Batch of 3 targets.
Target 1
Amino acid sequence: MISESKPTRLRKENSLVFRSALALVLTLPLHGAWLSNLKEAKNQASEEGKDVYAVFLSTDISGACVQFKKRVLSQDLFQEAIADRFVTVLLDVPLKQTPGIVSPLAANRVLAENFGVDRYPTTFFLNSQGIVYARETGAATSGPLKHAAKVIRRAKDQVARLESIKEAYQR
């Protein structure tokens, strides 16, 4: 009797090629002035009179986050388009936990919980005082310039809303 062995399927996460590609994408530098600390971003925004564009990613489990980072956030076109209006902060949230190892990004997990993040990627728009005025969930399906235009439009909508409230209050 000849025993026939079943071919074993390599899990995608265990594939050397997959792990190498993921490591490359995760180490791609983000061009521009991406901060990794929300408190620093709020302080800088307050000093410069800008809003904060905060992005919560979980690149260890989400392909959408990896692609969003690669196709939009790491592009010079995106950074240049929003630099005049926003201080940008990228918060990578490690959702996989290895027993005995504490990730330096673990504080981002607590911050994400405080913001009520339940899906990744999630972006928040904060004014210069650190108050959230908009939230979006999901990765951009458009290119860097279209996404930048959407981000800027969201901020302009907020300014228009505040001006109309101010006018109504003064009447």
Target 2
Amino acid sequence: MKHQKLFDYEYNDLQYLNLSKKIFTNSKGELLTESYTYPADYSAVSPYNEMILRNRVSEVIEQKGTLLVPGSSVATEISKIKADFDFRSGTSLIEPVLVKKSFGGNTPENEVIINEHDDKGNILRTWSKSGINTVYIWGYGQRYPVAKIIINGKTHSQVMDDCNLSESIIN
């Protein structure tokens, strides 16, 4: 017997045509739903209103998973991921600064803090809730990541110095 997975897709925002929900019924008859929100869902809040003006309308702000058991009328939240965006200090760039995650309807916890970006908005350094500090090296005109270095207590520039790297070498 061939197994087939069928998904239903909902697009509630006819202006931007972003996916609003993905719905799947598993073999137990449970309804699993993934719902998504975008900058347009927060249009009265800064910096999301500015993201809309800059046509950054397809970036997922929040993804939520729910489970509806047969015979129940209330869906249970099983997971939630939310990315917080903000203006980078001293510039007009809007960048992700924090990713929060929760499971089973619990209070969201900071999963990843984005500590540094370059002048193109690329992520240079992150810190995870498990205490891992990750530095990213970008090359080819700052278009592609060329290295991911897991190292505690070092900034991007310290890692570049320690590795004897300069922008001219990797670009």
Target 3
Amino acid sequence: MECVRAVIFDSKDKSIIIGTLGGKLLRWFFQDSLEAHTIAHFDHGIIHLEYNNMKEGNNFLLAGLGSGMFIAFKEIEYEPTMHIMFAYHGHLPNYIPNNIHFGSLRIFFLKKSNWVDKFAEIWSTCWSPTSNDLVVTASEDQTCIVWDLAQKNPKLLHKLTGHTKAVTSID
């Protein structure tokens, strides 16, 4: 049994999308109460899920992972699968001294006398209320980043800094 970390209703309230700490993205349809369908499986846990359904017929899901990656999916209505639009490492390794405000970022590994860091977990995501092309990601690296998704690869528009602790939630 997988540990569930995130759950969200789909855009039509016909199913729920489930993200697990083991990295599974599942979809469970209410009329099919026997099993959840696997959409994808990632190497890192799924920390946050967010839907945006502004455009008629085009509904999108954004997943924030423990690896610092965010992934956008296009919903296929009444199908157990979703199409991955892109997967992108949004919050890169932060090479700063050990700090109690960084959650798991303060866990460093010493390998051959070199410090090895990791990507910062994305703890929250938020779609723009007026555009499918704009999202914000929030991370344990104490930043929020505004992204433009209009291109093939997400483009960093602005990095909001100055937080003194991890940013755990945005709306």
